[in-house]
Amino acid sequence: MKKLILATTALAFSAGFALADGHATTVRMGTEGAYPPYNFINDAGEVDGFERELGDELCARAELTCEWVTNEWDSIIPNLVSGNYDVIIAGMSITDERDEVIDFTQNYTQPDPSAYLALSADADVAGGVVAAQTNTIQASFIASSGATLVEFATPEETVTAVKNGEADAVLADKSYLAPIAEADGDVQLLEQEELIGGGVGMGIRESDGELKDKFDAAITSMKEDGSLNALIAKWEVGAQF
Fold first, then answer.
1. Could you tell me the fold of the domain covering 2-110+199-235?
2. Is the separation of the CB atoms in 98 and 5 below 8 Å?
3. Is 109 helix (H, G, I), strand (E, B) or coil?
4. Cα separations (Å) of 12 from 8, 9, 15?
5. Cα angle 144-157-198, degrees, rounded to a multiple of 5
6. Which of 17, 133, 144, 213 is deepest in the core (most CB within 10 A)?
7. CA 35 to chain centre
């Protein structure tokens, strides 16, 4: 799924989520708010999307009081580690590199195919210039291929680069690019897809094992009763469990 963050120094902040006498402090749910259908800001200025609906349900099942905050993608792991929020729920793929810095819950989506968006079907994705959002699994994939990688801070900028002729194609989650291709006749999805990443999970500080266990149990319950698959189907974010 989305995103391979570059390694960062993990200086754990002592404050943050805690349980005291069986009662949880407010859990702050950190997301990007710029990657529909996973997460985005709606017309009312609120976090919306698959992960908002999922996160609210997980908090209810875990009997936690949760609030939502947004954070730019590039600093989303460092700001979790430093205590600005307690959980990352932002379309973040579980990777070995990230797992060296933070912990993850079990995955709540299967790996989502990555797709190419281009101006024409004959775009050169093997040896041409391919755009990706910085610090993503797609950027890492392109960097290890024969293509030339150009990185941008936001997913919107990668699409703009293709439309402006700065890149031959953009590689991102198919669930993000497909609605853009449907709405914009100037661009199209290519047939070639890449299956990279190990599914999406919630990122949690390594010191917050009890919080991780609570969310793991909630995710398991949603898998078992079918409600997670229903949300995946509703938001069209990949294959069901």
1. D-Maltodextrin-Binding Protein; domain 2 (3.40.190)
2. yes
3. strand
4. 12, 9, 9
5. 45
6. 133
7. 8
Q: Residue 24 pLDDT > 90, yes or no?
A: no
- Three-state SS at 140: helix
How far apart CA 48 and CA 39 sit, in angstroms, is 6
First-to-final CA distance of the chain:
15
What CATH class has 114-194? Answer: alpha beta
Q: Do domains 2-110+199-235 and 114-194 have the same CATH topology?
A: yes
**Tens digits of per-residue pLDDT, 62-86?**
999 999 999 999 999 999 999 999 9
The distance from CA 223 to its chain's CA centroid, rounded to whole angstroms, is 19
Nearest to 131 by CA among 118, 122, 112, 144: 118
Q: Are 102 and 169 in contact (CB under 8 A)?
A: no
Q: Per-domain residue ranges for the chain?
A: 2-110+199-235, 114-194
What are the tokens at 55?
Answer: 């996160």
pLDDT tens for 182-223 read 999 999 999 999 988 789 999 999 999 999 999 999 999 999
Rounded distance, CA 177 to CA 194, Å? 13
| b (16+ CB within 10 A) / e for 119-150 | eeeebebeeebbbbbbbbbbbbbbeeeebebb
| Spatial contact of 72 and 153, defined as CB atoms under 8 Å apart | yes
Cβ–Cβ under 8 Å, residues 222 and 229: no
